[in-house]
Every structure is written in structure tokens, then in C-alpha cells.
Amino acid sequence: MDPLTKLRKRLSLVTRRNSTATKNLAGKRQSRAISTTSEVASAQPATNIPTQEVRVTTPTTVPPRASLIDLAKTITEETEKLERYMKESGSAAPSFDVDVPLAFPNLPEEIKKARENVVRATKELGDLVTGPKESIRWMAWNVSSIDQAMGFVTFTDLPSTKAFPIHETATYAEIAEKVGLDEVNVRRFMRHAMTNRIFREVNPDVVAHTAASRVLAEDDAMGDWVGFTTDDIFPAASKVISALTEHPSASEPTQAGFQAANGTTNIEPMFVTFGKDPLRAKRMGGAMTSLTGGEGYEISYLLKNYNWASLNEHHATIVDLGGSHGFVCRALAEHYPNLKFIVQDLQKTIDSAPKLKEPLASRIKYQSHDFFTTQPVKDADVYFFRWIFHNHSDKYAAKILKSLIPAMKKGAKVLINDHCLRDGFGKETFWDEKIIRTMDLVMLTLLNATERSEGQYEKLFESVEGFRFGGVRRVEGCRMSVVEAVWDGEDYGGEIAKVTE
Predict the structure, then answer these.
(1) Which residues form the O-methyltransferase C-terminal domain (predicted)?
(2) pTM for the full predicted model
């Protein structure tokens, strides 16, 4: 029997067996639907059908699959919208050339969505034509090589004008001499960086800058971001699984991947380690400046995302815990003249805060305070936290809330400005989904902390008696949400405060 005939007979046999399985399964259905694989395992198998061939699972919504042509069409149509807007608005066309603007202009909502659609469809089309096997292979491969190349670039300060000026060229030999490394390895690392469009070759011996290398040359905060990622996050990430294996609860900030990578397990949390190393602390500060200045994190979104006007009418007092130098309070104060603010942070941070001028100086006060200790400001209307709760596991997040209780009057609010994960996957734009899910894992890696969903925030507030969860708000275009809770207990906590002290 020839191979083609054999194949046809085998396909015919499989079809008949699947048909028999379907009929037998239908005959044995009970009055209730079987919806989980565990229930199927305990159900009586259909006659003469091996159990593993009968598979009934909970129906899931399968997103419609766009064809390659559909994706290409989306890319074309959305790119046309974007390009037309760029021309009509007089904006520079996107380019890898060194002299282009280093950030996209602010876009109207429709054009912003067109840009996001281009990014999503391009990535999806690329993944489809690459295929799952090759995608997985090179996804894993690129992690270590990108870490090495970017680490080399930032360690040597290669993009800076110290190596060669932005609008000039240099030979590999000249660059090697300036950075103090041998020419062979300089060529290896720089050519890998070029695969990410950082630098370009004029000829096999001469290098020039690109837009990406110019970013690293001119944006110190971005350089800090890259250095923090390659030197602090990546080594810690390689130790996360071993840290979780040893400490499965992942609730202590002294037992994360960061500690495993730095030899500080059960000794000190990351912020203490950085406090002992001024260069690492400065770099992390610059990295956070870079992040919070990026798209989707602008303070302008916070101004739109809550009814500050109502608080302004009531001449409210807002306590900004962990508020650094009070940049959020300054932005709010400029828009709402009746609000008063107390910015709290550790003494070292407060000591370095800039001196404010009137009229802000009389409305914004600074105070040294550790938010794990009892809150000293009573009768405030709002206790505000930005980029704080995602740094802490539930155990310590609850401790922060409990520390507020002795100061809170009935009706006072807690506002948390942080990421808020969607329940399930795929409810964000592809771009934002990747960023927010990565941030969640970075919190685990560095601090054994977590980004939370709305349900997790609700559960957190329910765990501390006296708080009523008020929900989550998020405006279009912003990656951060405002989470609200109201103190419904007695003024200053009453009996609850005595328990928490």
C-alpha cells in the first residue's frame, strides 16, 4: 500500500472514531453541563473510547483571527492616518536619523489610536510570519544578548560625546582608545547595538550616531533607566525562581530575587541596599524620573482623573505620603488655589526638597514621616499615595493602611495612584498590556511586591476594618488609575485604633 493511501485510511479512521466519541458523549450527558476538566476526569468514559480522547472544557471566547492581508491592510490604513496628520500638523516624519525629534508629538485621541493600531498589527503580523517555534527560540536568546550589549553601552558611556560628538564620525580604533577597551570587543558590542538601531556603520571601520544613540547621549535619565535595568533588574530577575522556591509566600521584601542576586537575603530590602550605595541610588532615582516622565504617566492625567474641584470648594487638606519633593502637590496647587498640602517623606528626602516661593510656600508644607508608623496629621481630608502601594506585598500594604487609622476622621479618603491590572488578559492595548504586566513582574523581582487588580484592591481594604472601598478610576490614555477608599469608622479609629497600635 502506497504512503498516500495509508494516510487517507488513517484520516478516515480518526474521523470515524471522533464521530463515535461525539455520539457516545452526547448520550451520556447529564442534566447539568460538564464544564471543567476535573469533572470530565470523574465522569464515566464513553464505551470503547479511551478516556484521554474525550475532552470537554469550559467554553472560552476566541478572539477573531485577522488574516495576514487584513493585518497588512490595517497597517496601511492606520499608517496613512498617522502620516497625514504628521504632514498636516507640520510634525517631523519618524526616522532613525540622528537629527529627528526624540519623542513623538502629543497626538489627538484618534491619531493616538491609529499609532497604537500600527504597533499592534505590525507586531502581530511579524509574529505570525516568524512562527511560534522561531519566535520562542529568539525571544529567549535575545534576553541575554540585549542585556550584555546595553550594559556595555551604558557602562562605557559609549553614546556620550566623550566617545565622539553627535554629528561626527569615529573609527572603532578611536572609540576603543577613548573608552579603554580593545577594538575587537568594541566592534562586537557596537555591532550588536546596531541591530537595535543604536549607532550605524558608515563603512566597516567608521561609526556614526543614530536617533537612538543620541537619546542615550543626551538624556541622562534614560541612561539611568538602561543602567538600572541591565545592572539591577536583570541579575535579580535571574534569581526570582530560586527565591520563590525558597520563600513561596513572596511577601517579605528581604527575600526577593534582588536579595538573592545581591547576597542580602533576610538582611535588608532593596531600598536599604541602595541607600548604602550613592551611585546606585542616584541611578535608580534617574530611572524613576525617566519612567514617570514617559507616555501615559503625565501628571496631567491625574488632574483629570479625580474630582479635585470638589475638594477645592471645601478647602481640603491633602497629605501626600512618600511624596518626595512634592511635584504632584505643586501641580495640584497651581490648578486648585484652595487646597492645602503636607508632603511627607523620609528625613533625607525632605532635607533635599527645594525651597518654595509664595504663594505655594504657605500652602505646601514638608514633614519627615515613615508611613509604616502612626500618621501624625489628624483631620486631613485625603491621604494620597502615588507609586507607593505597588512597592509592597499585601502584608505591608495593610500595615500602611492601619498606620493611618489613628489620624483619620470619619469620611476621610485614601487615594492611591498606581497601576491597576485588568481582570483577565487582553483588555489593554497590546502596548500597555506588555508594559503593565512587565511592571508587575519587576515588583516581584525587586521587592516581592505586586501590581493589583480592582478586586485585589477591594480585598486589601476589606482586610483592614473600617475602610469602605470606593472603586477605581482611569482616564483614556493613562496607564495609572486612582483607587479610592473611605474611612467609615469612628474619628481617629476609636477602638480599632487601640487594636492597631
Answers:
(1) 300-467
(2) 0.81
